[in-house]
Amino acid sequence: MPDLLIDHIDGVAVLTLNRPETMNALSGALARELDAAVTACINDDAVRAILITGNGRGFCAGGDMAEKLPTDPGKSVLETWYHPMVRNLRNCPLPIVAAVNGVAAGAGMSLALLADIVTCAPNAFFLQAFSKVGLVADCGSSWLLARRVGEARARELTLLAERLPAEQALDWGLVNRIFPADDLFEESLGLAKQLAQGPVNALSRIRQLYNSAAVLDFESQLLEEDRLQIACSSGPESQEGRDAFRNKRAPDFTRIPLARTETK
């Protein structure tokens, strides 16, 4: 069986980590498969949203500690194997839902943090496990986590390496919704389908705005909002939305593909 299962359901690409015997530990090969799958999704007009989940009892237990990976000349293991996937997910123009069905530890927690919407089962938990093995946070989590839950909580989670259970993750704002374990996939898929039915270019630009807000000052962010609003206002999705409003019908955005020529 492949390490990554790929299904297409009503405009949603479902990417399932498929190493259940290791709690879906993120091997170098799996990281590259996920990176390639995200690129394929971006280039496929039929894909309008992405859902990432895990097979078995875990979402992703982090990097595969049993591996000894070779590196490209002058590069680290992270730069050779993992950072391309992290950057691709971060910069992906498509909305991403992560359905966390169990443990999300280390790089697996980073994977969840890279999603726009995070759902989880009641038994799921999140763990910044790095310090337990004498390592620092990686795969972007030192940047992503503080922006999701605040610096004080991010420092606590990373320094103490304590489990963050589902209900607390919801209370802290790391998780958007908790669903019963048996319903997690279908409910999360429903959210991803809802995104897939939406205006993919506007959703892509919304994703851009929240990414840029983390690094721009207020005035610069206003200008970025203006730039992207101009692009939306002159585009076919806005025209479809206004026409639907005038004619008292539901808009149909699904026939309008993602524009891939826009400069990010």
From TrEMBL:
GO terms for molecular function: catalytic activity. InterPro entries: ClpP/crotonase-like_dom_sf (IPR029045), Enoyl-CoA_hyd/isom_CS (IPR018376), Enoyl-CoA_hydra/iso (IPR001753). Residues 233-264 are annotated as: Disordered. PROSITE patterns: ENOYL_COA_HYDRATASE (PS00166). Residues 239-252 have a biased composition (Basic and acidic residues). It comes from the Bacteria. CDD domains: crotonase-like. Belongs to the enoyl-CoA hydratase/isomerase family. This is Phenylacetic acid degradation protein PaaB. It comes from Maritimibacter alkaliphilus HTCC2654. The lineage of its organism: Bacteria, Pseudomonadati, Pseudomonadota, Alphaproteobacteria, Rhodobacterales.
